[in-house]
Amino acid sequence: MSKPIMAKATAVWLVDNTTITFKQIADFTGMHELEVQGIADGDVAAGVKGFDPVANNQLTQEEIDAAEKNPTHKLKLKFNAAAVGEEKRRGPRYTPLSKRQDRPNAILWLVKFHPELSDGQISKLVGTTKPTIQSIRERTHWNIASMQPIDPVALGLCKQTELDAAVQKAASKRAAEGAAMTDDERRKLLSTEQSLGMETEPRMPTAIEGLETFSFSEDEDEDDKEKAGDFADADSFFNLPGGTHDDEDEDEDDRR
User: Which InterPro entries match (predicted)?
Assistant: First the structure.
């Protein structure tokens, strides 16, 4: 059942101006019965001005009279013919003024970590325009030098479920197109719960890539030592085959 606008103020007016039970008021406004009793005691909604539902076309006086006579009667919101068939207005998401300065940082985060998201998806998530997204993608934004990528969920610009739904939609579209994805891109296309549940894959640091076949076995070390010779002793290193330096010096002295 639809609820009246300004429910708490409406409850204040009904408590002050009618003899309707707390249960009836609670059912009509969507509040708890104890909360309505707190309004009557002055503990809740102190200073809230009552909102007349009759004058504001939410209740009829006949409906109030029927509820006062019968404690089991449930109040019904007045039918508004102008609201029939009214659909939710489509448009960009509203962003509070206090969070609008953080919106470019959220866009940069989405562009960096989820490049598969379209401009339309990003626009719906954080409430921005496509030219702004394009300028951040091309790094031509006027403030790009001082921007930092920040998760839009952490900034409160969108919900985690909304981000996961957009990522999953992008994953389905990319899979349908048959585009090849790297491991990093495939991980980005997963939802947060799936990504956190995956086991971490061991990766080799880029500094030692290409040394996968390098071995430190003892047999290979011993073979290398035998081929190169043992030069642990300095004298053995300088001794040449067929004589020593001392013998050559003596031959030169005899010739002189």
Answer: TrcR
At residue 237, the 3 state secondary structure works out as: helix
Domain check: are 110 and 145 in the same one?
yes
Residues 49 and 116 in one domain: no
Query: Cα dihedral sign for 149, 153, 154, 155?
Result: positive
Token readout for 95 is 């962003």
Among residues 165, 196, 227, the one where a domain terminates is 196
Q: How far is CA 233 from CA 224, 238, 243, 246, in A?
A: 17, 9, 17, 18
Q: What digits encode the pLDDT tens for the residues 166-209?
A: 888 888 887 777 655 555 555 555 555 555 565 655 555 555 55
* N residues, the chain: 256
Structure tokens at 4: 């009246």
pTM of structure: 0.40
138-164 pLDDT, tens digit per residue, is 999 999 999 999 999 888 888 888 888
226 lies in a domain? Answer: no
